[in-house]
Write a structure and sequence with these properties.
globular; 18 helices; mainly alpha; 434 residues
Length: 434
Amino acid sequence: SISAPIMLGSAAQNVIALSDSVFLYHLSEEDFASIGFVGVFYLVIAAIGYGFSRGGQIMIARRAGEGQGSEIGRTFYSMAYFELGLAVAMFFFMQYGCYYFFGLFVNSEVIFEKSLEYLDTRSWGIFFSYVGVSIIALYTGIARTSFIIVDTVILGIVNIALNYGLIFGHWGLPAMGIAGAGLASTIAEIVAFVVFIVYMLFEHKAKEYQLFRLPNVDLALIRQQYKLALPIVAQSFVGLGSWFVFFGIVENLGERELAITNLVRMVYLILSIPTWGFASGVNTMVSNFIGQQKRQAVIPIIWKTAKICWLTTMLITLPVVLFPHELLYPLLGGADMSLITDAQPVFYVLVGILTCFSIGSVFFNGLAGTGATFFGLIIQTICAAVYLAYIYAVVNYTNWGLPWAWASEILYWIVMMGIVLWYMQSKRWHGLSV
């Protein structure tokens, strides 16, 4: 009941990335390859804001478990203030720094120009995205997640409708191509943000948590959240950042290989949605139970959640992997379906990736719920180093192709699961405070 709504809420950026990719697939292969590259970059930017919100979510869940309702509003606003300041910094980086940053990774002039074109309109949504994840962290932390479904559905509908209009120039709107995808996503985030604010105004628990009382900036509380969340942000940056480097390495193989990789990424985003929800849900449950002094329940909760997560993921993964042409046709039909045929070997690898990801991510987020975020950063750094070394060797020194490059994800999650299991069994997290 906690995780199901979060499956959509935590995957809001995945929904946007999927919508952008599907429409640009029908525009041109160059645009589709470009959104694969710049889409992963924006997911890294979004993950930074989401990571900082996780620190607030853990603290809110702990206060809820301790029965300190009056502290929840103060914790929320400290998180929102920080996210807003961070959004300003990220906006200026995307507007003025990415020209030089992308030059370090991209060889194709077409992908370079189209990536900057997308960010020119997409970057304006960062303010609403970052404050929006603070609101999602609040309602996830207090385990009142039902409206997240409604808000994410609204975001998806608005994004899809505006993508159709702004990319191709329908309904009297200008045909903006990949820049239209960025503008559509920005407007969708603004609409979703406004809808959630309206919901908060009428939510009956808002008064209990003092959500209508705008507190002064509490630097001490912000520092506490920052200290807790910084390792989580670094984990996201290392994890998704290494994925961004992966796309940069694949781009060197050619635009066709990058387009295939983007198609696989798009399918991966769809199939990983249950894991995002269960991972975020177990994070809240672990922190809440520790707040209730029930540490003995933590590992059983994580194991049960991991089993349910794997089963749910496989129920949607196996049909897509076995029958990709039939099931992806509604999204990609009418275009060149040979891209799906070329991607079929990588789809088989996805079964192993999603098995390891669905279990490993639940355990890793359970670890974060205990407050052991710095140790989580150490784990993520070790895994990313192994991951990047493997990819670099496969792409540059072998002719194994994309399936073996994608198999790096399996290696990544196996190493992570082994270290997390050892740490949780050691009970070193019992003395941590949040």
